[in-house]
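INFO  loader      accepted 1 record
INFO  loader      residues=840
INFO  predictor   begin
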Amino acid sequence: MRFHIQNLTSTIRVFIVGSRNLLLFFLFFQSIGIQNANSQNAQLNGLTDKLEKLTTSFPQEKVFLHTDRKFYVPGDPIWFQAYVTAYEANLPSVLSTNLRVELFSKDKELIVEQLVFAQTGYGEGVIDLPRDLKGGSYILRSYTNYMRNFDADFFFEKEIVVVSDSVEAETSPNTPQNLGDIDVQFFPEGGHLVSGLPARVAFKAIDNTGHSIDIKGRLIDPSGALSIDIESKHDGMGDFSFIPQFGENYSVQIEGRNKAFNLPQVEEVGYSLYAYPESEDRVVLRISTNLELGSDKGHFLAVHSGGSLLYNLDLSLNKKVTMVILPTDIIPEGIFHITLFDGLANPLLERLMFKKGRGDTVIVTTEKRDYGTREKVELKIKADNSLGRSQSGIFSLSVIDLGQALDYAPEQSIYSELLLTSDLKGYIDNPMYYFNDNNEYATEHLDLVMLTHGWVRFSWQDLKDDVLPSLDYFIEKGLTVSGTLYKFGSDKTISGGEVTFISNQAIPPIIASATTSDNGKFVFEEAVVYDDDTVFFKGQRDKKRDNLMFEIDSIQYRWPSFSQSILLRGDKIDPTSNLSFLAKNERRDLIEKAFGLDTGVTVLDPFVVDASREETKKQALLKTAYGKGEDAYSFIESQSASSHTNVFSALIGKMPGVQIVDAFSPNPTKINIRQDASMGKLRDPLILLDDGEISMGTASQLDPNSISRVVVFKSLSATGLFGSAAFGGVLAFYTKGADGIVEETKKWNENFLNTTIKGAYNSSRKFYSPKYDVKSDLDIKYDQRLVLFWKPLIELDEHGEATIEFWNSDEETSILIDLQGLMSDGKPFQFTKTYETKKN
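INFO  predictor   done
INFO  writer      dumping tokens
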């Protein structure tokens, strides 16, 4: 999208500086319109039009995964929320819904792969680490199918560290590194060293592992006439200035190593650039040249951010040095690019810079600074835009015990990812370092990052040559569910047959129809189906009741080859800390096992500790999402259920108070659940499947072999749970898949199939967190949670507010709150806070 500057109130000053006179004159541009500037040069006008086309026709998607922490043990769950953005403003993406999430080992072995449903830019999930996973560093990677059209270095990547007694050799702590082998790269500002022109050169030094290493050295030339000391300032990066001369070969000799590194060759003629932020509101540019340009040669300066053109200035470079003061008030937060062009729209110089924001529009508060153990913490979020109006957004929250964790404030956040690392190629260690308001060197060191990392999402030369990306991978919206319809008992496919697809787990339920092709194939596009959902297929041929059967295709994806760009640092953890971390984890496991709980899942209506095994089994049969039913029947334990053609015929005479009529006839089945006589006319019961309402007709086609149990609500008290629809009672059926009983059935007769689909979206689950304002038999358990609370998909209300409650554990410790999110206008947000807990 093109940014018009016709109403710009800021002043752009251009100074032409000669060799003897400091200031010859200045020219004020009170109002600069993109169209007027473009009209002065047809070449550049066409180039900027191509930039606009590239930005709108090939939007860039970005992904960020907020995880509950970074350090885990084998068997731990990794809780995460996914953020997917698109276009230059990082708006929540309405493009892709399918998000790949992968976990790789250090040697690029795929450990876990998932497909996550990300609707309107947001999704959630959980990865259960294998219990036999070896200790070491792992790579969590995520991307959409559409992102595969571009460089894989722009996929989201994050280091996950697994701490275990079993550690692979290559990730073992204290493994010695050969520090004698290093590399130093040099980056002249603007891109060139030009004879006789002042040059600022940035550099970055890395060791043989790819990690940064601090160095000292000396810049020299062969004649020995030049000798300048250099030293890195941060993370192996630094800079120095000198005036190069054509024909000289410059190198840097590193202190303590018998090796020199050469600088780029010096060009005889050309341009050089020096840029620095004069204040928060403006940037000063010094453009130098050794060319004899004479009068105006038609140079142009373009400034863009994320593909959106912000400035297009006509410059007259008829002197040796030109100074430009560039207001930054219209430049959005993040990386912006300054490019100098000649009159033929050839790029001459380019410089990346970073614009920091002016503070957060989100206010996060807690009632107290410190809390007691088992005390409730109330976290309030309030979001306003720059005009003070309420703003919408989605957040995710992690709360961890720092006394038990190896974690600390996150080094990588949605803020640093969307504004910095997602737009740069190459590894950046601890990107949140550059956004620490208490770090006086953060801005200076961030500028070194800009000087040593290049922009590679597009090149001006490609735009000029009409080289556009090729789209081999398309935007995915939902799943493609397909299969084949056969005549029962044969391999003969049915053409022209009608297949109905039903998914009651979706909200609202999905009901779709398709006609089979000549080879019996049917396809349903943009379906939303999870791997634990039971879906239904009904087949019909020419309105006849011929026996048909289905074969459902698994949803398969061709995962791209792995290209590792992240550098893993987990092997630098102190081994003593590892032992303490493991010991505390073992203690938590012992506590959980003693009480028979798994805090990785939601606990509903816990059983009494001294209940008998049979009573426990009965209670389990009665469980529903709405509480316990009054009676239940197990299809699994029944010897005869599998011989019936539908679930209602299997229930005849099996449940007291439930009368079933016409279960075997073509007429609609009638069900009478014992009801109060005062109700008058009896009503049909409410039918549920895996806690979702279905019709009597759909229920009559359920395969008894796929059902685990049915729960009945008989009394009028059920109306308090289900409303007036429960006047006739409730029959709640649960599939084997919903109850965790896996059966792989692909073909079935009687024209109907209910099954799960392999390769569908990975289902998530709810994080368990106790509430100590409600008394429970489990309160006697010592609470030593490491992750006190995890909450994804926190949505602000119409006032731009949200309140989250959680309870502290029994530990006297330090607690870290890590809140991250994305506003509806694309502004990322990250907030951290620590507090202490003490015994009351």
